[in-house]
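Q: Okay, next protein. This is Nuclear pore complex protein 15 from Caenorhabditis elegans. I've checked the sequence twice, so it should be correct. Can you predict the 3D structure?
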Amino acid sequence: MSGRDLELTLDRVSSIEYPALVKEAFLNNWHASAHRSEVTSNCASLNDRYCWVLSRNQIFIWERAKSSHRAIIPTQLPLPTSGLPRSVKCVVVYDGVHRGANKTPCPGILVVSPEGVLRHWTSIESQTYIEEVLDINNEVALRVELTDEPIDGKSASFLLTTTSGTVYFLNGKGQDSAKTGALECNKVAGREAHGFRRRLSSIMFGGESKESTSLITNSFQHQSKDLLVVTVSPDVLTVYNMYTPCELWSLKTKEFFQPKIASFFEADLKRTPLKVRARLIDAAVFRDGLMILIGGTHEESQSVHMFMVWMSANWQTEQPTGVVWSARVPMNEHRALFSKIDDSIYSNLTLCIPKNTAESKKADRTDGIIIINPYFAVSLYLPFDLAKPKKPESLYRHVSIPPRDQLLGYAICSQYVYIMMLESGVSTIRLLPRGFADSSIYTHEQVVVPSLSVGTDDWPILSELLSEMVASGLPKTPLYQSLHRAFELFAEKHMAESEEELKAIIKMPDQEIARIVSQFLYAIIDYSDAANKTDTELHAKRVLTSRIMLFLKHMGVYERIISSPLGISRGGILSLRVGGTMLGEVSERVAASTAIWTWKTSNETNSAVFDAIIEKVLRIPEVQDLGLKDKDALFGRCGLVHHIPVVAAQQLEKNVIGKTKSHRFEVFHAVCELLSGIKETIISWRNCRTKVAIPKFPIWWTLETFASCYRDVAEKIIEELKNGSSTDSERARLLMYILSIYDFYLSESDSQPDNDKVLQEMIALGKPADAMELAEKHKDFGTLVKNYLTTDVGTRQKTFERYKKMFEKDDFEMYLCDYLKEHGRNDVLLQQGGSRVDAYLDNFKELRYSREIANKQFGKAALTLMSLADAETKSFSKFVEFLTRAYYCACSSIDGTDVSEVLDFYKRRYPEMKHRKRIPTEILKICFGNDLDAMMSVEDMLEWNMAVQPNDEASVEGFARAFHLLADLLAVHPDSDELKKKIDKTWKALVDYDEWNRVRSKEDVEKKTIFGKFCNYLINSYPADKGDSFPIWMPISRRLIFPTDIDTVLDECIANTTGNHLSWIKGHLKWIGEQLCKQALLPKSAFFRPDMKQVGSISQAALEAFGPILQRREQRFIDQLNRDSMMET
């Protein structure tokens, strides 16, 4: 829901009411003649347990919880006499050391009058108090706050702040101060005394001139690493450290806050405002920082403007240097109250921030920052990070106090801000959806295991019933009789006699003891007598099985049988279990039977569904053999109870449930309530403190019997929801069932879920939070990882780190690595830290080098990248990436790793990379089609560069690329005979490329043959890469491609050449070689060729100006070469 759909409302708290005596006191304070009341707007408050109201010279206090059995009678206590207005800020109600009639702490109360007269009740039930006149130097008390609860005979301690800014510590006086309530007052910190007498003497006799400060309007304490007290006055904001104790820092409004307020006015007026005045109103802690409410005025406005500023958490340790965030508070309603000529608005505004709102990192699901006035309340909704706000404006909402009502007080609790009004009672200030009705009261029926305690008078009845159970279900052998008597003696608290009776059994092997105990317990839970009430019988079984567990534990039998193998026959099938499973099964079978009985008797629909279920259960062969016909008789056979949920789940089959929608949903709800009831009762039994804790073994009895039907029902619910025939209310109800039902299935399963299908379906149905809760609870790592991969980086990584710690024993870290690698999320995998992840990445070189770079292990990364580049035979782009990164890492290595091998590898393979990049796309498409990223060997590059091209220019460039490649390789391997042979073969291919029978003269060699054009290219063409001003192939490198023996090359040529052709070819090669020798002697600057298209506008102009000079320089260079050539000729 967006902020536009929210409205601020006064939500009535119906559970809190004013007692009759309090209402009478309100009436007594009403003056009919003047049509006004003496009740002030700061005379009432409350906390989590109590409410209190000041009325004239007394205080009323009563419990918040409304009792339906009796009227609320408040406690009345007398207040100290005062000539100044009282305030609940000087009242503290806390949990005292005394206990009331219901064993709960009886509240203590501390009241301080404005003049400093203290009254302290350690218990309101005693009505006795201690009164002391505090030495506060004639200052006026402003606020009292509790600092320490009473403990070890010491009274509670308090902090008292005066309107002059002085802080006093009130702590217990005497060794028994917790009972007497005696307190002593000590000044802790504050300004120099500014009491009434001091100010009067200063006026009469003069004194040292000091800058005066205004009176404190509010103060509060904040516990962080230190106990801080913040005092707010219109002109100064001060923070004291109580542990030092001293003033931590102080900020003057005029110097620190007023310039910020002036900037708002300047933005409005578009010029510098005149006579700007700012006044601090209130402050509160918000997101560890300090939120401050400020009022501001200027000359051209007749209103008081409201502003909020926020300072970061550094305020708790040092003086702030600036404001982090600030905003205007638009007070558009009740504008008459904000007149500049009326200063009362400053004292009638209160900043209220509940604890949960203050600690929340975002505004969602909070009521915002609330400002209260006797006539209205506003909320500022700040849905952004104050340090880095993304939205320029905050949400503002307003609500008016009912016009005929009167504000009595307010209270800031953990979740809400409460206001107490004369007529309307107590309400919370809530930011709710627009048009939202009064909150409905939802009650959650909890399944509670009944008490297992039995009084002395009850045991004879249980003992008689136990004898019937043993007699009907067990043979009369000495062992069973001894176990029976021993348990009877234990129940009657004759422990020694019980142990003596048990000696014969103790001497038996553990497995035999487990067998006897198992048969004894099953005789109890499978006992049934039609003369007994079902619920009474179930309660007896519950008590007896619980007490037997205690009996086994006390007698040392429990530890012996808990791991003993045990065979239990059910329906003719032998199930192998251990003693611990058997003990848990017995208790939980009784609990499940109780849950089924409770469900069956709750309403008629459930009873009808139960009848349909029992009819099918009675036809099961195992049940038929017992001859049971009474539908309720099965409750006496707890050993068969697992058939009921299984058959109940079958009732949801399409061919059983029926086509009528209303009937179908009735059966759905009935079955789901049954399964949920069984689940809740079993879980409650496992958590019950009155039973012996039994460890849950991997294969539990529920998994072997009926747990799978819970998954079946969950899948049927999902199928029903997908059909879309259910209403919104039915859909919500079914979703609630599926959470409970599937939670039980997962808890009983012996395998850890992984990407569970039902959980994925729940996410798709709009229950991701609940699905994640189940996935986290039952360690479905696949679902957890899959879901959080869709969140932002911060949330995802924070959650993964939390899971690594939470599931350390389950090795979530390695699961995460495998999942991310398997699903191609290498980006997330590389964000994981730790030595185990490093070891994992060592198995994957393509990931390992990234981690090594991140850890600044550049030497290791270079070696890894080199091996990857050497092994890459398919993708040229990957080869380039690996080779380039290997070189850069090697150059950056400072960890002592020997990277000479990497540098040598780069030197050898760099020519291949460089020349593969220069092969035109047209040639690559001919070679590989659309696979332009294919790797090419040196032979492939030579072959395709020398292939027949569409024109002579392309052919020349192809041979140039081939010779350039060979030249670069020969520079790396100068002694390679194989490269020299390839150079000769390339010259042979160049000569054979032409039809020499068409060449008639030496001039034709230059103009008509590829050989001649290539020779001309060697001495006259020096192209450069785009953006480079120097040629890609310099003369000194071009000299390397000359054949070692031109005669041999020409002899091997297949061209139809004559003697003249051969002499022309040799002459050409000789002339080119001489020209290249001369060019090689020239400096590199002689080949500078600026790219006129790749420079900026200023450089362009400069180069255009020098263009003619550079052209003349180039021409002189060419003329010089021609003259030298003519002279040699």
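A: Here is a summary of the prediction. Residues 31-35, 194-212, 435-457, 1125-1129 have pLDDT under 50 and may be disordered. The radius of gyration is 46 Å.
Q: Noted. On to the next one.
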